[in-house]
Amino acid sequence: MALVGLALGLAFPEPRWFGLSWLVPGVWLAVVAGERHWRLFGLGFVAALVFRLVSLRFLLNMPHTVGAISGWLALSFYSALYPATWVWACGGWLRDGLVKLEWPWFRRFGFGLFAAAVWVGLEMVQARLLGGYPWNFLGVSQFENLPLIQIASITGVYGVSFLVVWVSVSLLFAVLQIRHAPANPWSWSADLTLPLLALGLVCSWGVFRVASLPVSANRLTAALVQPSIPQQLIWERGSDDERLGKVLELSRLALATKPDLLLWPEACAPISAERWPEVFDMVKSSGVPLLFGADDVERVADEVRFYNSAVLLTQDGPHLPSYRKRRLVMFGEYIPLEKVLPFMKYLSPIGGSFTAGTEPVQFALPGSAQTLAPLICFEDAFPHGGREHVSPETALLVNLTNDGWFGAGPEQWQHAANAVFRAVENAVPLVRCSNNGLTCWIDPLGRVRQYFGQENGDIYGAGFVSFEVPLGQALGQTAYNRHGDHFGWGCLLVAIAVPLVRRAKRGLHTGGGIR
User: Fold this and answer.
1) pLDDT tens digit sequence for 280-337
2) Strand runs (DSSP E) across 215-280, as ranges?
3) Which residue of 147, 322, 410, 510 has the smallest Cβ count within 10 Å?
4) Do 208 and 240 belong together in one domain?
5) Are residues 119 and 239 in the same domain?
6) How far apart are CA 108 and CA 94, in angstroms?
7) Burial of 369 (0-12, 13-18, 19+ CB in 10 A)
8) Does residue 199 share a domain with residue 223?
9) One-letter-per-residue 3-state SS of 283-349
C-alpha cells in the first residue's frame, strides 16, 4: 500500500511523473480486493497518508520546527481521509465482482463511472469543508497535458479527475479480463472502448480549442519583483527598512523597462509612514501603477482588525477599496480557537490572527475599461473561489503570494500547477508574483508561458522579470465561469444517491424474503 501512495505522490511536482496518476486508482482497488469494513478503510488510509506525506513534504521546510512537523502530519492525516474514504466506498462494492469476475460488462461500466463520481464528489467536499484545502486534486497532476485540461473550462479541474479515475478503473477491468480469458485477445475491448473514446473526444476538442485561440491585440507589460526574502527575515523585528530597500532597488531596475504595471508579492515589505512618501514618489514619477501586498488595519467599535490585502497604488493615490484576502491559511494567517485554547499559538510563528475579507475586488487596468482581479497566496488553488473573482470585465487574474515559507522545493511548482486550472476554467491569463518562485504568467489555455529563472533554472533567486501579457477573455466566457460546479455537484449527488438506492432495494428484497 505504501508503494501505491508513493506512486501517486510522484505524479505531482516534483518529479511530476503524471502518467502514474492513470494507474494508481485501479491498482489501489486491486490491492484491497477482498478486504472488508475498517480494514479496507485502513489499507486505503495507509496509501493515502503516504501520498500526502510525500506530496506535502515541502511543509517541513518551514523555519518553525514545531509548526512544520505538526502541520505536515496534521494536514497529511486530514487530507488522507478523502482518498481513503474513496477506497472504502468503492472497494467494498468491488470486492466480489473483482475477486470472482462475475460482473457483466454493463455493471463494470457503471461501476467505473460511479468510482469516478465518488472521487470527484469527495474532492468537492475537500474544497469546502473546514474552509477548504483543494491542494493537488488528482486532475492537477495533468497540468502539462494541454489538450486534456481544456475540459476544465466546462467542468473545472474535477472533469480531469473524473476521466483519470474512470480510465484507471476501466483499465483494471480490462487487465482482469485478459487474465481471465487469455485465449481471447480482444477481451479487454469492452471495458476500455467507451472510456478511451470519451478521452479521445475530450482531447480532440482540446486540440481544437488550443488551435482556435486568437491573438489578442490588447496587451499589458507587467514588471514583477521577486525579492526572495527569507521567511526568517520577514518575521524578524527591525527588518522592515532592509526589506523595503531591497524591493525598491529591484523596482527601480524593473521600471527602467517601461512597464504598464509593477507588481510586488505578498508580505514582502511593510511600508512605514516614514517610507510611504518614497514609494508614492516612485509611482508618481514613473507613472506606473503598483499592485502590492500589504497589511490593512481597520477599527470596528472596540476591535482592531487586521487584513492580508492587495493594494493598487496609482498616481492619484491608493485605489479604494483594497482587496482583502478571503481564504486564510490555518496557523499561517489565523490560529483556530486561539481564545479558547491559548496553547494553540505555540504551533504557529504568527503573533495574531488576520480577519477574512468578504468579497472580490476589481482594479481598473491602466488606460483600459477592463479590470484585473487580485488573488492572494493559495486562493488560486480554489476552483470556485477563482471563478468568483472573474466577471465579464475581468481581463487578467493576478496572484500575489509569498512561497518563501517553504524555502526551495516542490511547493513552488505544485502551487503553479494548481493555478494553471484557474486560467483554463475562466479563460483569462493569470500572472503570479511570488517572493521566491514561481513568478510566471499562464495563458488562458493553461500554458506556463514564461517564468523568472527560466534561462538559468534558478526559480528561487532575487530579481525582476517583465512579461508582455495579452489581455481579455479571448475565448469568451467559459461554461464553468457562467455555471460553476454543476458537474461536481452532480457527481456528489450520484455518490450519495446510488448507495442509498442500492440499500433501499436491498431492504425491499430482504423484506420480501421475510414475508
Assistant:
1) 999 999 999 999 999 888 887 778 888 999 999 999 999 889 999 999 887 667 666 5
2) 219-226, 261-263
3) 510
4) no
5) no
6) 9
7) exposed
8) no
9) HHHHCCCEEEEEEEEEEECCEEEEEEEEEEEECCEECCCCEECCCCCECCCECCCCCCCHHHHHHCC
